[in-house]
Design a protein that fits this description.
This protein is of the alpha+beta class. Helices cover 62% and strands 23% of the residues. It has three helices and three strands. It has a three-stranded mixed beta sheet with strand order 1-2-3. Strand 2 and strand 3 form a beta hairpin.
Length: 65
């Protein structure tokens, strides 16, 4: 798990973007030491969305049985 302050996102966007792309994991962003957001690559986001759609289809099939 990668955690970075919001100032790093503002000042070092390319580094955060590269970290998200190379790790394939979300980067958690904090503001004033508190959780604030999540940054992830489009590839990671699309894979997660695909997994959620597949999971939804399985649940729907189970419910219809």
């Amino acid at each position: 798990m990668q955690i970075r302050p919001s100032s790093a996102l503002r000042n070092d966007y390319m580094q955060i973007s590269e970290l998200a792309r190379t790790s394939g994991q979300p980067v958690f962003i904090t503001k004033n030491g508190e959780d604030d957001g999540v940054f992830m690559s489009m590839e990671t986001f699309e894979e997660r969305e695909k997994m959620f759609r597949h999971r939804d289809a399985i649940y729907a099939a189970e419910i219809s049985r």
